[in-house]
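A reminder from the course coordinator: this example appears on the midterm review sheet, so study it carefully.

Given structure:
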């Protein structure tokens, strides 16, 4: 038998003839089927009613035009909202934003502010603005964001009191300058002695809301405000910031003006030294009046239950890190203690263990209602930064010295109150007399977080509060008891808050919120009582003085004529004058010399009997020395003399106040005891309680004791 061979590979690779034939026949059949399907589908579609083509509507066109609007582009088109509406206003706004930034930066770094503001002319209607400070400086990579990006900053929503809040101001000023002049801004900054000073030239990209750096260079920064060495070389400036930019603006010194803004800034920031150079290169110096920086709170304040809104409470609860309602009330809201938390939860019928994240609208509403009916302590004064009575008076004296006012009230700092969950406090001070205009409306100095408010006075809560008081009750003229009073007076009102409710982004007026207006009125009335007391005393003295002058003129004339008729000598009229006047007259003379104040008190007894009493004198905040005659007693800073004057006799008392000047002088306080004060002109009746003085009064106000 022959051997049989099997070729398996050939079997696998070569299909049978029948199979090949089958495949070739199937392919055309499939193609034919597909063609038939297409024909059938086409016939079906023909039978269906034809749909009309969709036409483009107006909504489609509008949809294509809609886009995100960068915040910088929005404010570029609506710059009036930020206070850039006319050349004069724009200049003041630009300076204000730069100064606010500098003061905030210095205070946060614990540095006494030294500010220099220069305005110079570049071309027609073009002004150059330079604002320089001695603050901590700005890290180089942050400069384009700080000066070229709107809504960029560290203070928004921080819960801390500050001048700037929104992160708009200085960037908006540079944006306006770029828009109106096309010029770039230059920022010079240095953060320490170990770092070089850097100068950055940049412009704003309003489409992308960012700053574009054009040039960066290091340089040696000379401190030209310091004292040069023996070779005339100025030392280097180790830290600070200087911003320079150009705007279309107009400089003037009539109110409102840059000069007025800086004067007002100096009043409420006596810890700052401000140098201003106007376009005529005239230099104005507002020197530092106090070496003490404002004490800034270390932490931001949380919303207060009194005034928190329903939606705000729900948002806070749903995003809280606490998982028990009791802990949420304690940690996320302010002024909530164990008792107030318990009372609130009982009234709201809520368990202290319920999750705040699960709270419903009705439960949140119940909490809001329980807040209203529960006694919850007001925010502590430590969360806010008041100016304080002492510094308000000091600031007024330093800046208003040219008017020589004859009376300063002891300013009032109210304890904090709340609106919409936000704490705030009000401070008020008044000035009267001197060279202030008598026949004009009183000047109202408005401030918010130590920043002057120069515009939109009519829409401001401060103005409305002043106009809502009947000033005739306090000795000032006022038509029909409404509107701004007339008289030689200045009224200062300062509102401090972690979130000032301004009427617009320009931050020029405080919204008419009832809680704020009520506090302003209370502070005004309280302070006005002091003014009223002074005016009554002044009126009484003027009336007696007028009566005395009349007596002194009429009686001698009558006596002389009568004596000539009867042929007898003119009699001594002292006792007749005393019988008519029936007062003890006390007046003082005050002289300011180098480093000292010399005071003389003259007492005249215009009574028919002897005047025996104790005279008590004090100069608040100062010690009395070299008193003549030697006082019989001393109590604290009070000196006490025993006075014994026969009828028509007089006496003088002298002393010196060392290490004092006009700005530190708080006035002379005189009291009498042991005699009916209705017969005394020039002194008050002693109440038996030593007045704490302005320093102690300020501290008492802070603690809510006064």
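Designed residues:
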């Amino acid at each position: 038998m022959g051997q049989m061979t099997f070729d398996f590979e050939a079997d696998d690779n070569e299909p049978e003839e029948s199979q090949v034939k089958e495949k070739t026949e199937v392919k055309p059949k499939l193609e034919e089927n597909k063609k038939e399907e297409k024909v059938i589908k086409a016939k079906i579609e023909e039978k269906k009613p034809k749909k009309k083509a969709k036409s483009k509507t107006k909504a489609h066109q509008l949809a294509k035009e809609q886009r995100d609007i960068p915040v910088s582009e929005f404010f570029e088109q609506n710059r009036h909202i930020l206070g850039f509406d006319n050349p004069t206003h724009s200049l003041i706004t630009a300076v204000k934003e730069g100064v606010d930034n500098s003061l905030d930066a210095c205070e946060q770094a614990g540095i006494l502010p030294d500010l220099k503001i220069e305005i110079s002319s570049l071309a027609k209607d073009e002004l150059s603005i330079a604002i320089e400070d001695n603050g901590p400086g700005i890290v180089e990579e942050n400069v384009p964001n700080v000066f070229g990006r709107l809504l960029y900053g560290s203070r928004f929503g921080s819960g801390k009191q500050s001048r700037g809040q929104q992160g708009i101001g200085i960037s908006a000023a540079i944006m306006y300058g770029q828009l109106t002049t096309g010029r770039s801004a230059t920022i010079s900054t240095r953060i320490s002695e170990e770092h070089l000073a850097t100068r950055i030239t940049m412009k704003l990209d309003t489409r992308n809301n960012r700053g574009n750096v054009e040039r960066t260079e290091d340089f040696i920064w000379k401190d030209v405000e310091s004292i040069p060495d023996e070779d005339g070389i100025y030392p280097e400036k180790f830290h600070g910031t200087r911003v320079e930019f150009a705007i279309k603006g107009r400089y003037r010194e009539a109110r409102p003006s840059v000069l007025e803004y800086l004067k007002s800034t100096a009043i409420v920031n006596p810890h700052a030294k401000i140098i201003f150079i106007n376009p005529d290169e005239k230099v104005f110096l507002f020197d530092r009046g106090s070496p003490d920086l404002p004490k800034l709170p270390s932490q931001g304040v949380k919303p207060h239950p009194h005034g928190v809104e329903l939606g705000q409470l729900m948002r806070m609860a749903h995003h809280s890190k606490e998982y028990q309602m009791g802990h949420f009330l304690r940690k996320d809201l302010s002024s909530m203690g164990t008792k107030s938390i318990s009372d609130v939860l009982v009234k709201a019928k809520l368990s202290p263990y319920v999750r705040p994240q699960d709270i419903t609208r009705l439960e949140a509403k119940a909490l809001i209602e329980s807040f209203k009916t529960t006694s919850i302590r007001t925010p502590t004064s430590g969360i806010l930064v008041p100016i304080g009575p002492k510094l308000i008076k000091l600031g007024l004296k330093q800046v208003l010295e040219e008017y020589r006012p004859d009376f300063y009230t002891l300013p009032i700092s109210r304890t904090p109150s709340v609106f919409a969950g936000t704490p705030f406090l009000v401070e008020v001070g008044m000035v009267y007399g001197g060279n202030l205009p008598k026949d004009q409306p009183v000047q109202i100095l408005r401030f918010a977080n130590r920043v002057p408010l120069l515009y939109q006075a009519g829409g401001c809560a401060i103005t409305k509060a002043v106009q809502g008081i009947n000033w005739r009750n306090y000795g000032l003229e006022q038509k029909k008891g409404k509107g701004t009073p007339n008289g030689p007076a200045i009224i200062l009102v300062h509102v401090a808050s972690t979130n000032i409710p301004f009427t617009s982004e320009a931050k020029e007026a405080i919204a008419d919120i009832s809680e704020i207006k009520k506090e302003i009125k209370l502070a005004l009335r309280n302070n006005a009582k002091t003014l009223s007391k002074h005016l009554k005393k002044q009126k009484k003295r003027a009336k007696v003085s007028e009566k005395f002058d009349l007596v002194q003129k009429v009686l001698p004339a009558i006596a002389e004529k009568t004596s000539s008729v009867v042929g007898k000598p003119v009699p001594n009229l002292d006792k007749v004058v005393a019988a008519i006047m029936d007062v003890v007259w006390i007046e003082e003379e005050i002289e300011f010399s180098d480093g000292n104040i010399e005071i003389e008190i003259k007492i005249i007894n215009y009574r028919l009997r002897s005047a025996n009493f104790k005279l008590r004198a004090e100069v608040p905040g100062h010690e009395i020395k070299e008193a003549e005659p030697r006082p019989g007693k001393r109590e604290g800073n009070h000196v006490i003399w025993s006075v014994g004057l026969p009828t028509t006799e007089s006496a003088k008392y002298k002393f010196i106040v060392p290490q004092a000047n006009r700005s530190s002088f708080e006035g002379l306080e005189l009291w009498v005891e042991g005699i009916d004060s209705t017969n005394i002109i020039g002194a008050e009746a002693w109440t038996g309680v030593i007045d704490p003085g302005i320093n102690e009064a300020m501290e008492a106000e802070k603690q809510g004791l006064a």
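Confidence is low (pLDDT under 50) at residues 1-14, 153-159, 691-706. The first helix runs from residue 8 to 13.
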